[in-house]
């Protein structure tokens, strides 16, 4: 547990501690079901406004910071986070049960994300500048001078995920991309890791201070149940929402956002079972390794990853039988890992019980329960395509290391199954690309899958998301509320922007990004052609 | 009236005429309140599915057409539209009361839009290709090969506007951008101009045929009331909605789309009063010309433009008094033009009556009623900032040539007024940019206005929207349902796309847009750098 000299810590609102009037919460070590760390005060709903008011005020100046300032601020936040690294890694482990290597890896990723978005802010391509100079002689009508850029939407509410206490939490992807876009962030911490959130929040607050930004640029709220979160999304000063969590939580926020006097976009990542399709040629390779890699992907982080495999498609026949045997064997020597919270563990156990009760679903294999609390045994069940397609609840995500193996006997059944899938974050195909028949099957599957998922991958595992320019971590509903965007990677900044056109603006009033001479050195589209500064 | 050899015409569904089972409608010449043209059969709600099924089927092949095919198809549609030009211009005039010059101008714009989107489809930049080649040696983890492109969402439902029988109707902007994106279109015609819609629909259907596309790529529906439209938006095969019309109509579609099992995006353009701010230095120029230009913008197309000025801010004092006098004089010699329909005319007359009843609002000037039916006199009312800010209904759009003049006595009051504005399509500033004080005021106004509107323009008039790369015809709610997009200009294609990532896809299965060697000659982002083919 992190050393702390105080017994009570407060939400960080508008640059300072604001004593919450909605009770308190403490972290819980899920490996022991024991409370840990100090008490954190929870805001009462009527206190939320203090953060949103400050954010609205901060927006006026923060949105006008130049690329260098915004980038420097994000880099300082990354530095301060890195400096607090040891305390963060320790607190993550205590509050979430995640192992040290995972905590360190996630911290590195989170720091890397902040630095990546510093580069995005600096480069400024996200401004999407398009310039059409006036054509006074054009017939039948002259063309005015028209210049377009994207502007930040305004203060953004972000909700922390339970399963990524760093990368999808206080200083995670939504925070980084919103801040890079020029949007202040009001962050609703996840109560499962209040101490982690506090350390990260302090790092960001410190960076705000060091760069003399308005303190409302970042606030960190704690609150009980859904009240504070709902109040936040309903607040007229909030202009967009980022959320990672359950389908019920996400759809509740969508409803609130849609019912506002002025509706706002909600980017909720919710639910995905991430099918993995093994084609016959994949099984003619090293089946033992395939099974081991699959089980590692299934059980990693106790299966609590948005991209964890919940569905494994295995061909009928001897090779498939053998693969399933290998999975069973591998799994039986695998132990359950500590889950994030007692509640998440219960939901997973109940989900497995419901699965067991579905007619046509059979238990295939089980690992060992872990030695800690909240560490249920990883498990695999089997069923067939018909049962899957006729039983809607089999499409529901079970958050944890539980996978359904489906045996299929023809390409046609595979394609039927794909047609019956809901929107997913990922789909994975395994095949030997030298095998002509499987390659053709994969081509037909790809054409369906690309319409159903955010990312299609080959001969790998969906867990592990590379953070860069080309990644998409998103997908059609219910994987996310809005498949037009991604929560990971540089494209995520587009969530928080909207285009504005400027017509015949006098030169002295022209925003820098739009000025002749391109003072910010942006990639711009001028009169239909790309203007790409050297080195870009 | 267009010559026709039949007395009854049907919706165009899946490449052919489908006799509607929901009654019939005829065009009405609003200048005479007299029915005109043949009868058009209306679909019954349960017939809608025939169009959506066909569109879903068409999507499978249409989305895979290459850039050249899609561009050629859009160009043929433009050609066929142009060939039907004389009949179209005549029908538009009869069905809408719009004058010949406007009909010809709008036809040219519509043809131009189709050709513009042919170029967009051909260039393929909208695919947003980003490539990150594998880095097997990267530490701590190797980078997979990741490639991103945008895919079309699926069949799109588009609703025709009353006020642009061509440019925002059957072959208008939403149709052009959706088709360019690879989305089949199911178009719900506006019943106020069924004959115009039929001619345009035939031109597009003909182009679909000539290019051997699936006939479900385009369908044209007629329907009574909101039933057919609601059925269309609720249909699970529809993946996005484009709409231009009233706030009540738009928000009803938003509610339906949000309540679906799988919610979909709605791009509704709804309501805007397009404030025009005259700063003191603007009044030191030719006030007579300023007044004449304002009245022309107000009364053009009988005020039935989404960007028509509904609010004119005039400084207190003598110059302002004189400007208002000039407006009054100019208006008094101006005649009302025929409005689009009797219903629209009634709504406008009622809106004006409500305005007249607001305490603090005074009649300032009135033109003459037109000589046709449905041609009420253009009118100007005056009020002050306080009344405007304390009377929410003064923010409601009155669709027609009615403008509220607000006198202001300080920059502070102007800024207060801007703070009280709802989201708008446009805001306009008039000033002499050489005037230092006004330039500074304009700078402060611009910083507020750019957060409130889709387009800010200087020393011009908001009516008249240039169609190109840099335009934004959109804006925060209630101007539109989704300020993150535009309905006019090339950026509009982004409404109908979503990104997908491809990880480690075997070369043989790589989509052409993503292949090494860039066979489609796209502008792409490769490993963080722009790859811009020559000439782009």
From TrEMBL, chains A, B:
Keyword Plastid: no
Parts forming coiled coils: none
An example molecular function term from Gene Ontology annotations: oxidoreductase activity, acting on the aldehyde or oxo group of donors, NAD or NADP as acceptor
InterPro entries: Ald_DH/histidinol_DH, Ald_DH_C, Ald_DH_N, Aldehyde_DH_dom, Aldehyde_DH_Superfamily, ALDH_KGSADH
TM spans (from-to): none
Domain of life where this protein originates: Bacteria
Aldehyde dehydrogenase domain ranges (all copies): 23-466
Keyword Protein biosynthesis carried by entry: no
Keywords recorded for this protein, A-Z: Oxidoreductase
Annotated PANTHER family: ALDEHYDE DEHYDROGENASE-RELATED, SUCCINATE-SEMIALDEHYDE DEHYDROGENASE, MITOCHONDRIAL
Listed name of the protein: Aldehyde dehydrogenase (NADP(+))
Organism: Rothia santali
């Amino acid at each position: 547990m992190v050393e702390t000299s105080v017994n009570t810590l407060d939400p960080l609102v508008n640059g300072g501690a604001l004593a919450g009037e909605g009770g308190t919460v403490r972290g819980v070590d899920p490996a022991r079901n024991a409370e840990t760390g100090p008490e954190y005060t929870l805001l009462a709903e009527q206190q939320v406004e203090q953060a949103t008011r400050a954010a609205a005020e901060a927006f006026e100046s923060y949105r006008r910071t130049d690329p260098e300032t915004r980038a420097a601020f994000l880099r300082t936040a990354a530095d301060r986070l890195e400096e607090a690294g040891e305390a963060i890694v320790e607190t993550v482990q205590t509050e979430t049960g995640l192992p040290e290597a995972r905590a360190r890896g996630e911290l590195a990723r989170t720091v890397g994300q902040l630095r990546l978005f510093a580069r995005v802010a600096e480069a400024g391509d996200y401004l999407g500048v398009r310039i059409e100079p006036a054509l006074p002689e054009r017939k039948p009508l002259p063309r005015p001078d028209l210049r377009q850029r994207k502007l930040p939407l305004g203060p953004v509410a972000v909700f922390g995920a339970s399963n990524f206490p760093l990368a999808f939490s206080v200083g995670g992807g939504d925070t980084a991309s919103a801040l890079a876009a020029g949007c202040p962030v009001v962050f609703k911490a996840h109560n499962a890791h209040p101490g982690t959130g506090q350390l990260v929040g302090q790092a960001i607050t410190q960076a705000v201070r060091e760069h003399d930004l308005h303190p409302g640029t970042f606030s960190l709220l704690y609150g009980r149940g859904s009240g504070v979160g709902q109040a936040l999304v309903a607040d007229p000063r909030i202009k967009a929402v980022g959320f990672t969590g359950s389908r019920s939580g996400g759809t509740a926020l969508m409803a609130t956002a849609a019912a506002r006097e002025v509706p706002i976009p909600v980017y909720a990542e919710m639910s995905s079972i991430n099918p993995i399709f093994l084609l016959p040629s994949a099984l003619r390779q090293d089946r033992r390794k395939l099974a081991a890699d699959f089980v590692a992907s299934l059980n990693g982080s106790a299966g609590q990853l948005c991209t964890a495999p919940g569905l494994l498609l295995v061909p009928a026949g001897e090779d498939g039988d053998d693969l399933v045997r290998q999975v069973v064997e591998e799994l039986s020597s695998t132990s359950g890992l500590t889950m994030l919270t007692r509640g998440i563990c219960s939901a997973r156990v109940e989900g497995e019980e419901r699965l067991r009760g579905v007619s046509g679903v059979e238990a295939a294999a089980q690992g060992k329960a872990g030695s800690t609390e909240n560490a249920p045994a990883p498990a695999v069940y089997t069923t067939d395509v018909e049962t899957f397609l006729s039983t809607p609840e089999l499409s529901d995500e079970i958050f944890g290391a539980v996978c359904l193996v489906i045996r299929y006997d023809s390409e046609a059944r595979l394609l039927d199954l794909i047609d019956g899938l809901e929107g997913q974050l990922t789909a994975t195909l395994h095949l030997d690309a030298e095998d002509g028949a499987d390659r053709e099957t994969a081509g037909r599957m790809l054409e369906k899958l690309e319409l159903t998922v955010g990312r299609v991958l080959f001969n790998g595992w969906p867990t592990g998301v590379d953070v860069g320019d080309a990644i998409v971590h998103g997908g059609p509903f219910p994987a996310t509320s809005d498949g037009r965007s991604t929560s990971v990677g540089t494209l995520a900044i587009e969530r928080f922007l909207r285009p504005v056109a400027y017509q015949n603006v006098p030169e002295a009033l022209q925003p820098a990004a739009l000025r002749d001479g391109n003072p910010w050195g942006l990639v711009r589209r001028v009169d239909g052609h790309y203007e790409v500064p050297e080195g870009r």
